[in-house]
């Protein structure tokens, strides 16, 4: 998923502040909750982006809705409302997760396969591919895609390792046809 430069900058600033305060896990958990809210209720972001509602009213809404959130995250949300960048929250959450995982020697990976992977298969894939990208562990999300015909496709950040039958057939077709 492509992220905007702005989202990466906000995520970096939030990460550094949370890290300084020793609140990485708490801010990460709060961000996950915020991401769920925005995904399940797109109206929430629409209200915060509405030009007819004053910035002060939007900030009051954010303050009341996220009163239990970490102050550093609440301040970031207030700034996003001020700068009219609240629509970047999903990209900021994703970038923050990547930064937190990287700091812990981990990385997020998406593994596409024709069927759901077992726990042993996930563990073996995590171990093998973590070494390839210089990480200690991988947090794997399994996506089932029957159109792959067989094999797996692993995406870790910008790196893609594709050993699916469909990609092998496509390469063979290119070699034969030219």
UniProtKB/TrEMBL annotation:
<keyword id="KW-0813">Transport</keyword>
<keyword id="KW-0406">Ion transport</keyword>
<dbReference type="GO" id="GO:0005886">
    <property type="term" value="C:plasma membrane"/>
</dbReference>
<keyword id="KW-0066">ATP synthesis</keyword>
<dbReference type="Pfam" id="PF00213">
    <property type="entry name" value="OSCP"/>
</dbReference>
<dbReference type="InterPro" id="IPR000711">
    <property type="entry name" value="ATPase_OSCP/dsu"/>
</dbReference>
<dbReference type="GO" id="GO:0045259">
    <property type="term" value="C:proton-transporting ATP synthase complex"/>
</dbReference>
<protein>
    <recommendedName>
        <fullName>ATP synthase subunit delta</fullName>
    </recommendedName>
</protein>
<comment type="similarity">
    <text>Belongs to the ATPase delta chain family.</text>
</comment>
<keyword id="KW-0472">Membrane</keyword>
<dbReference type="InterPro" id="IPR020781">
    <property type="entry name" value="ATPase_OSCP/d_CS"/>
</dbReference>
<keyword id="KW-1003">Cell membrane</keyword>
<keyword id="KW-0375">Hydrogen ion transport</keyword>
<dbReference type="GO" id="GO:0046933">
    <property type="term" value="F:proton-transporting ATP synthase activity, rotational mechanism"/>
</dbReference>
<comment type="function">
    <text>This protein is part of the stalk that links CF(0) to CF(1). It either transmits conformational changes from CF(0) to CF(1) or is implicated in proton conduction.</text>
</comment>
<keyword id="KW-0139">CF(1)</keyword>
<dbReference type="InterPro" id="IPR026015">
    <property type="entry name" value="ATP_synth_OSCP/delta_N_sf"/>
</dbReference>
<comment type="function">
    <text>F(1)F(0) ATP synthase produces ATP from ADP in the presence of a proton or sodium gradient. F-type ATPases consist of two structural domains, F(1) containing the extramembraneous catalytic core and F(0) containing the membrane proton channel, linked together by a central stalk and a peripheral stalk. During catalysis, ATP synthesis in the catalytic domain of F(1) is coupled via a rotary mechanism of the central stalk subunits to proton translocation.</text>
</comment>
């Amino acid at each position: 998923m492509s992220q905007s430069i702005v989202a990466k900058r906000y995520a970096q600033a939030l990460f550094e502040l949370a890290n300084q305060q020793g609140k990485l896990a708490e801010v990460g958990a709060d961000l996950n909750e915020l991401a769920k809210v925005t995904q399940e209720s797109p109206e929430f972001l629409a209200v915060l982006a509405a030009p007819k509602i004053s910035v002060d009213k939007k900030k009051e809404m954010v303050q009341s809705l996220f009163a239990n959130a970490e102050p550093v995250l609440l301040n970031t949300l207030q700034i996003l409302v001020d700068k009219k960048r609240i629509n970047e929250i999903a990209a900021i959450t994703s970038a923050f997760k990547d930064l937190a995982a990287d700091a812990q020697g981990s990385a997020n990976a998406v593994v596409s396969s024709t069927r759901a992977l077992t726990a042993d298969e996930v563990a073996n894939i995590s171990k093998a591919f973590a070494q390839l990208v210089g990480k200690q562990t991988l947090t794997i999300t399994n996506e089932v895609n029957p159109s792959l015909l067989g094999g797996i496709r692993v995406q870790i950040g910008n790196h893609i390792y594709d050993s699916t039958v469909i990609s092998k057939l496509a390469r063979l077709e290119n070699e034969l046809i030219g």
